[in-house]
């Protein structure tokens, strides 16, 4: 089974399904989203959508009310295509331990979702995910996905690795190969057994090649659609691997294990 381990709700949903079909992808991990760059028809519209993304990545407006529309869109996509999408739920950071635990139990586990993410702590704020990791541990090995590209800092990646070592039963996925800090991300994930590295939007081919070489059992094919393209992302993985067990794990086997499909 080919599984895209990183995608966001599209508008319209049919456009996303078309991309998955073209790429030969069976299923996709689906995150809710507040920005919708795929809606933009010109540069001005794209700037408006990207401004929403910039606010989210900076940690501004991260309230429950701000998340509810994204949750509704996610619910609709999962209800329409349960056989294609694997639901993960992003939750606000900074709510405190008890409120976060209740939110994860009610909104993630209670709704049958498979994991938590994509979390977007502000730069320098990776420690904010600790209550989420604690809740994920309490609920039994829920995978947690964290944004890894800019504005995530090198210090944030180090913090994530330290937290992963504290919550060893929780699979912690760093997205986008860690962005510009991809060499550090590879090293940290390699040396932290419950960390995983998702490969979307890599700008350098050998970043993906080296990631798979160093951590073949814990690298995940992902597109970050609509910011990336499933066809290109799959082609890149296949370009730097040969047929066989490693490629199969990267293209779906490992994420299938993490979400209970294998």
From TrEMBL:
Gene3D superfamilies reported for this sequence: Metal-dependent hydrolases
Q: Please name the GO terms that the record assigns under molecular function.
A: hydrolase activity
Protein known as: Amidohydrolase-related domain-containing protein
Which Pfam families does the entry mention?
Answer: Amidohydro_2
Which residue ranges does the record assign to the Amidohydrolase-related domain? 3-261
From what organism does this protein derive? Kitasatospora viridis
Q: Which InterPro entries match?
A: Amidohydro-rel, Metal_Hydrolase
